[in-house]
Amino acid sequence: MIVRTFVMDTSFYGNLLLEPDKELLINKIKSTKTLFIIGIDVIEKELYETPSHVKYRGETTQKVLLTLFDFLVDEVVKLPPIAAYLAEEYFQAYRKQAKNKKLLKYGEENLRTDFRIIALASLRAVDVVVSADKRTMLSDSAKKAYDAVNAKNSLRTPELVDYDTFKQTYLAERKG
């Protein structure tokens, strides 16, 4: 049995919450023995920053998302200082590709957070990062930045999978 390590980006938890069959998907994710989910403190912090006035089925969305994170994650790791350095390298490589600053329109802080997540995943040799963030984290420009910087540092970029692809592939693999 081959166990694969995953990091689920912040957007994963919000999208999962909106699924019509979320309980089925959550149970399938949790019950597999070949899936090991690493949570990162910056993702947990982003979930914690969900506005507390937003409600989901009578509870704060923040509480529901944090409960989902705690339930699905097998290990929570803190972002080490070297990940922040690597993320800055990604940001500089990404910025060089920006034509008329269009790529930076999504906000430097959001980009830097995304890049910290990928940095930690690269440093920990995580197999897959799942996100619904196609405009930034999963963009071609970001992928080029990760690959260039990781090649210089002898790191492997994790496989980057969009949320819908993960869901379809995972559900297809788990049927029957």
Observed structural traits:
176 residues; globular; 8 helices; alpha/beta
Please give the largest β-sheet: 5 strands, parallel
* Radius of gyration from CA coordinates: 16 Å
Helix content: 40-55%
* Number of contiguous helices: 8
What value does the average pLDDT take?
89
Overall strand count = 7
Strand order of the largest sheet: 5-2-1-6-7
Order of helices and strands: EHHEHEEHEHHEHEH
**Structural category:** alpha/beta
Q: Approximately what portion of the residues adopt beta-strand conformation?
A: 5-15%
General shape? globular
Structure, described:
The protein has 176 residues and is of the alpha/beta class. 55% of the residues lie in helices and 15% in strands. The protein has 8 helices and 7 strands. Strands 5-2-1-6-7 form a 5-stranded parallel beta sheet. Strand 3 (55-56) and strand 4 (59-60) form a beta hairpin. The chain starts with a strand and ends with a helix.
List the helices and strands and how they pair.
Blueprint: E1 4-8, H1 10-17, H2 22-31, E2 35-40, H3 41-48, E3 55-56, E4 59-60, H4 61-72, E5 75-77, H5 81-97, H6 108-123, E6 128-131, H7 140-152, E7 159-162, H8 163-174
Parallel strand pairs: 1-2, 1-6, 2-5, 6-7
Antiparallel strand pairs: 3-4
Helix pairs in contact: 5-6, 5-7
